[in-house]
Design brief:
- It is built from 18 helices and 12 strands.
- Helix 9 packs parallel to helix 10, helix 12 crosses helix 13 and helix 16 crosses helix 18.
- It is α/β, with parallel strands linked by helices.
- It folds into 3 domains: 116 residues, no CATH class; 178 residues, Rossmann fold; 54 residues, Orthogonal Bundle (Arc Repressor Mutant, subunit A), CATH 1.10.10.
- Helix 10 links the parallel strand 4 and strand 5.
Length: 384
């Protein structure tokens, strides 16, 4: 069930007391990825504390809990101390946010079964509402990796938060691209925040925390079990306004995420690939079903209706494409002869982040092209 704005909160007698917040943490730790049951439990008893103090007989009377759950829940509840768990999170430099507290992602709150509590390392900001999920195969081709990193880099340079699952392959490339673009990225895990999976992404995870956040609905110490990832995928799509699939088999986790996005009323897009590659079957299937074909960041911006934020080929009264001061300075330095990124930074004197952002805008407007080796050329001509 989806919590109405202040709906369940009102049923829980207004603002949570500190102890209510801890009891909600306790329930999340006992029932991760069981949001539907947990919402029923809270609604039935009226508050997290009342549910926590309920007897086995009272738990048995909750619709949807099931015949075998009450005894098991009561046993695990008696062995768990929410205050100690909160202290563990603090000591690990992590925090938990309840669904109706400041900082809970607004996009996620709108889905059918958001986690009542999420665990966070790093920071979630209001600007993360403008987010796109970049997902795909764990064993992509060089083409898939290149496209994922380039799309994520361009989106991040435009101020769009890139969301993915920190898995091998496309997920990793998406996070790296966002970091290279100087923007924010959010990773959603299918395990506890103290578990690095895959292990080789330990350094990447640290970088994501520094410029974004790592999120999970699973308590500390939870291993990355295979059945956790489909539930994790609903959070990836739920955090995002749109989902882009890059290389995926016809039956894959990426397509599960795309299905969640459709159920949540979010945009689904796909990057086409080699017609003889099995990894193209997933994206091509989505395109046949009506997903937007993506060739660049501009297609994503257009599909999501964000032209008002990122004008593409917008012209002024004189018929000229509008550019910022930084964009115009860079455009005037470009020609058909490739120019390196370092040279552009040196010649303009702008900060690297500003140069990357301006180049991304120019490319979306069709005025520049990036060549291999971080070289740039002018792609459009005219007087400005």
């Amino acid at each position: 069930m989806r919590p109405e704005k202040n709906g369940i909160k009102d049923n829980l007698r207004g603002e949570y007391l500190l102890e209510d917040r801890l009891y909600l943490l306790g329930w999340q730790c006992l029932m991760p990825e069981q949001g539907k049951k947990l919402w029923l439990l809270l609604k039935h008893f009226g508050s997290p504390r009342a549910a926590w103090e309920a007897s086995v007989k009272e738990l048995t009377g909750v619709p949807g809990i099931g015949a075998n759950d009450p005894e098991n829940l009561a046993r695990r509840r008696a062995e768990f101390d929410p205050a100690k768990e909160a202290a563990r999170l603090r000591c690990a430099g992590m925090k938990f946010i309840c669904y109706d507290e400041p900082g809970y992602p607004e996009n996620l709150l709108q889905i059918f079964d958001p986690p009542p509590v999420i665990f966070i390392k790093g920071s979630v900001k209001s600007l993360d509402k403008l987010a796109v999920a970049v997902i795909g195969s764990r064993k992509p081709s060089p083409y898939g990796l290149l496209v994922a990193e380039k799309l994520a880099k361009d989106l991040a340079a435009l101020g769009v938060t890139v969301v993915s699952g920190m898995a091998r392959g496309i997920d990793t490339a998406g996070h790296k691209g966002a970091l290279a673009g100087g923007g924010r990225t959010v990773a959603v895990l299918g395990c506890g925040l103290d578990v690095v999976y895959p292990r080789e992404n330990k350094r990447l995870m640290e970088k994501i925390v520094d410029s974004g956040a790592v999120i999970s609905e699973y308590p500390l110490g939870t291993p990355p079990e295979p059945w956790h990832f489909p539930a994790r995928n609903r959070i990836i799509s739920g955090l995002s306004l749109g989902t882009v699939v890059i290389e995926a088999a016809e039956k894959s986790g990426a397509l599960i995420t795309a299905d969640f996005a459709l159920e949540q009323g979010r945009d689904v897009m796909a990057v086409p690939g080699n017609v003889v590659s099995p990894l193209s079957r997933g994206p091509h299937k989505l395109i046949k079903q009506g997903a937007r074909l993506v060739e660049g960041a501009g297609d994503i911006i257009d599909e999501m209706g964000l032209e008002r934020l990122f004008p593409i080929q917008e012209e002024d009264a004189g018929g000229k494409v509008k550019m910022s001061v930084e964009e115009k300075a860079l455009y005037n330095l470009l020609s058909l002869e490739p120019v390196s990124l370092d040279e552009l930074i040196d010649r303009t004197g702008f900060l690297p982040q500003k140069v990357l952002a301006a180049l991304a805008y120019l490319e979306i407007k069709g005025l520049t092209r990036q060549m291999p080796g971080k070289l740039y050329v002018r792609a459009g001509w005219g007087s400005f």
